[in-house]
């Protein structure tokens, strides 16, 4: 099949957790990010008539599809001067996100975002689209994660499973960090051949999206993009959720610990305590 007829599937995972620092300091930033995401999504659909789009909202309690609507499509009135598909994308995303935020339970304390689970849902959606595609159609799939949350080492195993599953399915993972650097997601971008960007400032967010993440991965080698950052491949220990250089690995479930433990807290396997190293006997000096 001609490459011009290939379909590009873009799945956007947007972190809408109110515990993010940029949203706590100014809730208007969520509206600003949402407008930029809608403009970026419509630009992706505008590139080719066969392009497909999906948008997921990652909240503190659940992950939901904002687009496409799993039920009956919304009844959208025609807006003069705007393409009907663009109007449908904008109205559907904003209405479903507003309903999700209004129905979300109130937070008593800051909680982490369910990013790893949201990325797993995106992979499941991509697998279903590939399974139901017509014969002879090639779909180039990629995931874009937009988040301002901090690093979450408690989801380390789920992150790793998602990264290597995406690599096996030839799904490219892109990440746009809005607040702090994310070492685990940097690993995912490097494993799948995606692009990682730590946003310098929130102003101009749409311009960064269009510049870095709108081109397909096959075209990025011909463009001038930000240089790749050095990836930190250290693992996070399962006991304190901190990145370590040297640790102990369970031989059964491959859990990682910074200190020796006779019982694995993940699979409850019992290990023998290491025997102390016996001191070598000193050689007696021969008398002459």
Automatic annotation (TrEMBL):
InterPro entries registered for this protein in UniProt: TFIIH_Tfb4/GTF2H3, vWFA_dom_sf
Major localization listed first in the record, in broad terms: nucleus
GO biological process, one term: nucleotide-excision repair
GO molecular function, one term: zinc ion binding
One Pfam family matching this protein: Tfb4
Domain of life: Eukaryota
The keyword Zinc appears for this protein: yes
This protein's UniProt keywords: DNA damage, DNA repair, Metal-binding, Nucleus, Transcription, Transcription regulation, Zinc, Zinc-finger
Annotated coiled-coil segments of the chain: none
Gene3D superfamilies to which the protein is assigned, alphabetical: von Willebrand factor, type A domain
Intracellular or extracellular location(s): Nucleus
A GO CC term assigned to this protein in UniProt: transcription factor TFIIH holo complex
Similarity section: Belongs to the TFB4 family.
Subunit structure: Part of a TFIID-containing RNA polymerase II pre-initiation complex that is composed of TBP and at least GTF2A1, GTF2A2, GTF2E1, GTF2E2, GTF2F1, GTF2H2, GTF2H3, GTF2H4, GTF2H5, GTF2B, TCEA1, ERCC2, ERCC3, TAF1, TAF2, TAF3, TAF4, TAF5, TAF6, TAF7, TAF8, TAF9, TAF10, TAF11, TAF12 and TAF13. Component of the 7-subunit TFIIH core complex composed of XPB/ERCC3, XPD/ERCC2, GTF2H1, GTF2H2, GTF2H3, GTF2H4 and GTF2H5, which is active in NER.
Protein purpose: Component of the general transcription and DNA repair factor IIH (TFIIH) core complex, which is involved in general and transcription-coupled nucleotide excision repair (NER) of damaged DNA and, when complexed to CAK, in RNA transcription by RNA polymerase II. In NER, TFIIH acts by opening DNA around the lesion to allow the excision of the damaged oligonucleotide and its replacement by a new DNA fragment. In transcription, TFIIH has an essential role in transcription initiation.
Protein name as catalogued: General transcription factor IIH subunit 3
